[in-house]
Write a structure and sequence with these properties.
- The structure is a single chain.
- The chain has 2 helices and 4 strands; from the N terminus they run H-E-E-E-H-E.
- It is an alpha+beta fold.
- It has a 4-stranded mixed β-sheet with strand order 3-2-1-4, covered by helices on one side.
Length: 79
């Protein structure tokens, strides 16, 4: 899994006045959230990018934590 470096994302104006789309784009390479569900009747956990794109589906939370840590990403709470 390749992750874009946040330093590669250029801000063209004052970051205090970013649009929602710019904020999502800035956080997308590093911020992820986890959704639980089932796949073929078995528990499954999906790792999603900040924009909602599914990145991976695993069968164990610990595997999800390892993938996120190995790729220098951060879980965020979504409600």
């Amino acid at each position: 899994m390749q992750i874009a470096d946040v330093d590669d994302i250029a801000l063209t104006h004052d970051p205090r006045h970013m649009t929602r789309a710019e904020l999502r784009r800035l956080g997308m390479p590093r911020l992820v959230y986890l959704r639980s569900g089932t796949v073929e009747g078995q528990p499954a956990y999906a790792i999603h990018a900040a924009d909602g794109t599914a990145m991976a589906v695993v069968e164990d939370v610990s595997v999800a934590l390892e993938l996120v840590a190995e790729n220098h990403m951060t879980f965020v709470a979504v409600h």
